[in-house]
Amino acid sequence: MKKLGLMTAVCMGIGFSACDDGRLYEHHVAIPEEGRVVKLTGQLTGIDDWANGYNVVVAGFTDDSEYAVISKAVSANEEGEAEIVLSGINDEVQSVEFCVVNRLRKRILTFQKADLQTTDTIRMEVNQMDVGMYATIQEQLFNTTCISCHGASTFAAKGLYLTEEKSYGAMVNVPSVIRPDSMLVNPGDATTNVLYHVLANDLDATLSRPHHEMISTQATNWPNIVRDWINKK
Ligand code: HEC
Question: Rounded to an integer, what distance in angstroms lies between the CA atom of residue 110 and that of residue 195?
Fold first, then answer.
């Protein structure tokens, strides 16, 4: 009996709230569907350090295009705290990325991808990250592709260390070994430096190791990114 009484009370409760819900629901469906929302939070430095024409953004892509369907610039306060909300992500969007795009919103490189499994607000948490232009070249190019021969072990080809902490000092205003008349990195002028030409594979002299082949399977954007970094200095 006691149990039945409780059940009745619960049912009545449901009955009332269902009545309330009915009105609310009708109101709710009148609001147009605005798509998914991605919220990126992070502790970021170097956002404004990119050369002209590059933008650090949160952007949505379809699987078959490198051009963002939707994007929003990432910014941070003085403490480096960033909080970006990208809304209106429609069904066409298959991936949302924290990335760098160019003026045409073409993806240049990716820092992190969001998991788009859920339909609620999608949260992207970025731990402390230096997304500056040089820091990214170091992290995504030198660390992944170059340091195996240039300094990660006891060996550094042509004495060139491309490891973190050392790479900048080893190249900027330092003469090249293979082309002693040129600098490895000549700030402000990518045409007269060896780093860019090694990557672009347009040195007069052929290298015993064709470097462009090392990066061709990865982002083909690297020679241009390095060129624009040098020209920006
Ligand atoms: C498989 C080993 C290997 C990898 C990986 C490698 N290099 Fe090299 N690198 C060499 C060798 C060997 C030379 C000297 C080439 C020669 O004498 O023809 C060289 C020379 C260079 C030079 C010229 C140095 C100078 O003082 O003139 C630069 C710049 C350079 N590499 C940059 C890079 C960059 C950037 C990467 C990553 C994209 C890279 N290398 C990856 C082996 C490597």
Answer: 23
